[in-house]
Design brief:
By secondary structure, this protein is largely without helices or strands. The chain is built from no helices and two strands. The protein has a domain of about 30 residues. This is GcrA cell cycle regulator.
Length: about 55
């Protein structure tokens, strides 16, 4: 099997940045901190509202 790409394979073209906003009620800041428990969808928070990390 060859390592060269065939005509059927295309490189990814995702170049757009997805912006997440803080999920804290009433906050509209950029949510740069994503947190997920298990296989849940991540929840996004700004620096001010990010949850404290427990257990370290």
């Amino acid at each position: 099997m060859s390592d060269e790409a065939s005509a059927a394979t295309k490189p990814r073209q995702d170049t757009a940045l997805y912006v997440h906003y803080c999920e804290y009620p009433g906050c509209a800041k950029w949510g740069g901190f994503g947190f997920a428990a298990g296989k849940d969808e991540p929840r996004w928070f700004c620096f001010e509202h990010r949850p404290e990390r427990k257990g370290c």
